[in-house]
Fold each of these.
Amino acid sequence: MFQFKHIKFWFVFLLLSFFLFFIIWGDQGFIDLLKLKNEYQQLFQYSATIEQENVNLHRLIKRLKHDPEYVERIARTELGMIRKDETILQFSRRKP
């Protein structure tokens, strides 16, 4: 009788250990759940960043379409363009 209870205890213990192992480390287990939560959080942050960048680009497009002064400023600063009636003067710096 004692031996049967002993075997039964070890059988239940091993069975529970087996299930616990697969719940934690098995496929779609707790460890995978933590990894998926982390990946979800990263993707959510990336999505928010992309969304903000998209809003900024829409503002820039709207401004480029409807604000000629802004277009002129960009053309002058980034492209080095000038008006037809302007002349560029360049001075060389001499060291004393």
Note: The chain is about 75% helix and 0% strand.
Amino acid sequence: MHYMDGAQPFFYRGGGIGCIITHGFMASPAEVRWLGDHLGRAGLSVLGVRVAGHGTHYRDMKRSRWNDWYASVLDAYYIMRAQCDLVFAIGHSMGGVLSLLLASDERTKIDGVVVLSSPFLLPKSVAQRAALTKAIIPYTDQTDRTDLPDVIRAEQARRGEPQVGRVRYDKWATAAVPQFFALVAETDKRLSQVTAPLLLVYAKGDDLALPPNMDYIAGKVGSKHIEKHLLDVGGHIITQDAAREDTFDLVREFVQRVGVQLASGQVPTVKQKFSTQS
């Protein structure tokens, strides 16, 4: 299999707390690699998932289905569960949706969930338009023309990494877009089955996953421990944009704190803790 530059999955062996980190739609593990680096340096075991159809060639998404994407995350769960005492599911955007679906699965035992900028409140008109478009146009140009690729390249240079910018598809297979909506719909139906401690992190400047998504998810899950953080900086890609360091710290602190509590037999039960981060 040929990967795009920087799209390879990654693994860091640490202690008994394991983290499965999943990237977003049409992206790659590069989107969450810096978060993985941060958690790995903190002594956590980390597996960065490459979701099926992603990080290879944009044409691969034409025949990719949401069940395939979920299978990638479920496989990662079994790998981490065999090696770690506790397993946290962490995901950005679509990766957060997949993490919630994983936590709702009766076959799994997820000890904590971290959702970063995941969209559930999506207009029905967008889904309907996506279903129509796939029958007319097989691929669309989705090149990122914002300054984010340059921001990422600058950080890659600072870290001594190849300056590849955003590792994602610039052309999107329109057949995959309705699959994304189907994934969100399926996960939405199963949110009440999510009972693990939950961290939700969103940004005020996100124009895709708007902050009200936090309250929507928090109101539907069965978790007794929910923490919500709204970032004053950053947009949708909070794992790589100006919000990244705040995001990394929030995730690490949550995983370590909840992990220690669970390991000592405590049950976190803080309902609806909310804060902002600037």
Note: Helices lie at 30-41, 66-81, 94-104, 124-133, 148-158, 176-189, 212-220, 244-263.
Amino acid sequence: MEEHCEALGRVFRILREHRLRLNPKKCSFGVRAGKFLGFMLTERGIEANPEKCQVVTNMRSVKEVQQFMGKVIALARFISKAAEMSTPLFATLKKGGRFAWTDECEEAFLRLKAMMAAPPVLTRPRPGMPLYLYISVSDDAISSVLIQEERGEQRPVYFTSKVLQGIERRYQKIEKAALAVVVASRRLRPYFQNVSIIV
């Protein structure tokens, strides 16, 4: 707690020096957990906001699929291989086609729903400790997870995934793996600065 108070003191001094003000209604101090940018920050790490994890039960229209996919995209940093699992659902949203809910869509929906119901807690990276980037490639998507080891246990920091478009689908596996590293390094740029990354 002392360290936290010292850090707050430094922040307040800098704010005063630059004549910046904080809105007291939007500030919280000395709390164990709170909402920040739509996520829950706790002692354990970054958690998904429970309000965003509530899911529609049936998919009857394009609009319901769009709403569900909006929630998936908002929580993608918590879902391993989100883009790969979402591919059948995105197919139902293509313009010009009829809405058709297939068995493949139902399976993808149930898997995503289960993952959203119990998302993992993402850890905050510890300075000076290496990060590990694991990548996965398939015919339709690439995925990665940034992990840090803590007391012999690997804990996720951030999940990324991307549906492959056009010519990207024809890439060789090694090219898709390289693309996965590029996508992860762009999306996770703040995590890649001043830290050793093991791929």
Note: The CA atoms of residues 3 and 9 lie 10 Å apart.
